[in-house]
UniProtKB/TrEMBL annotation:
It is a single-pass type II membrane protein. The keyword Cell inner membrane does not apply. Its cofactor is Mn(2+). It is an enzyme of class 2 (transferase). The gene is LOC107576349. This is Hexosyltransferase. Belongs to the glycosyltransferase 31 family. Interacts with B3GNT8; this interaction greatly increases B3GNT2 catalytic activity, independently of B3GNT8 enzymatic activity. It catalyses: a beta-D-galactosyl-(1->4)-N-acetyl-beta-D-glucosaminyl derivative + UDP-N-acetyl-alpha-D-glucosamine = an N-acetyl-beta-D-glucosaminyl-(1->3)-beta-D-galactosyl-(1->4)-N-acetyl-beta-D-glucosaminyl derivative + UDP + H(+).
Amino acid sequence: MKDGVESDILKTLADMQQVNSLLFSYSYRRRNPGRFTPDSLMDLTLDLPCRCPRCGEGIFKMNSNWKTTKVLGLLMLANFLIYFVVEVSRSYGQGQDIYNRRKLTPKKFWKKPEFSPAFWNREQERLDDIYYLPLANGSEAPHDFRGIPRWLNRTSPCEPDSRVTTEIEDFKSLPQRFQDFLLYMVCRSYPLITDAPNLCSEPPYLLLAVKSIAPHFDRRQAIRESWGRAGILDGQRIATVFLLGNTAATDHFPDLSDMVKHEAALYGDVLQWDYRDTFFNLTLKEVLFLEWFGTHCASAKYVFKCDDDIFVNTRHMLAYLGNFSVSKTQDLFIGDVITNAGPHRTKHLKYYIPESVFRGVYPPYAGGGGFLYSGNLGLRLRMISRLVTLYPIDDVFTGMCLKRLGLVPEKHMGFKTFDIEEKHRENPCAYKSLILVHPRSPQDMIKIWSWINDPKAKCYMKTTLDMKGAMRSSKSK
């Protein structure tokens, strides 16, 4: 039996050698078409001419017995099966590769910050994880992004958030103003007591938004009669609105609610919300104004946000803005910018911030005496402010919002939030080239405005420099 097997193997090898010789000749003939004529049915089938036209001798003649044909068929079938297996394997491998690529998690654009022991930092990290980081990474906007997140905005009447008493280790030793701020930090929506529905019925070129409190009737009236007079000035429409909270008996204020209502009805320029008007709630006033602006006065080209104890050279501000088209000032945000600052740790200071509440450095921000920005940027500030945890200092909070937008406020030398030299304060010409001076009394406002508008005053108004860099785009690093 062994000899029979060996005999079959040797015969098969001989047949394969014959087939290989056949395939070689076939390949040669295929590369030299037209030089041969067919000789047999097998030659015709394979398109293999069998005789040399010059010598008449046969190159070969296929032995077309059944066994040879069978071996050739098996080889062809084997080649087909090998080809099929290779192609299927390659396709499967490519499918696996595509699947794996889809499963790869893209590298985070923002690095997850380390856990912070400070309460504000922890709250902001939580807000970033849920809402801001997906947005920054180019993902679909979160469901609640177009409104303030529900867990961050307890609607009025707002109840104190008792969890802060256990999450801040030294809560009981903090000043009362801090305890009050932290207990109500999750509240951002309050109803309007008085509204100004017709303020922006005609779209203003410049909206003057003045932070005030109920008892400051004299300041508001002085502004109305001087630099904040509503109407047409130098060919541009000006609108002025005063932003108030509610002065409570808790803070030893007299009840002035009827007087404020009368003022609002008389001038139609007062917005008053039903929240406690305190220094730490100025940030709340900021976000409430941005929400109102986006809903009721989004057509304003520019917004000037300020305190009620300053003097503003509105004419010079308009001249400054007139140097540029609105389309060139989409990212405009100018003021008296403070950089490389951080929280004060001395308890008796007005701006004291305990380490248990916030740790880190402040982004560049403009002093709250006043700053100027485009209406387009105001709408973006409104949107991004919803994703920044309330901070007890409103100037710093606005700087945080700008940083989230990838913008840096630009310092303008016309903003004098720390006053000018005393020797120049009674010189009318000193105010011609300025935009803002702080502080000034109601009487000062009216007096300086009369100087500015005196046609006999021959003062050189410094030409506004190129606004290049009035707002630099800067990716947060």
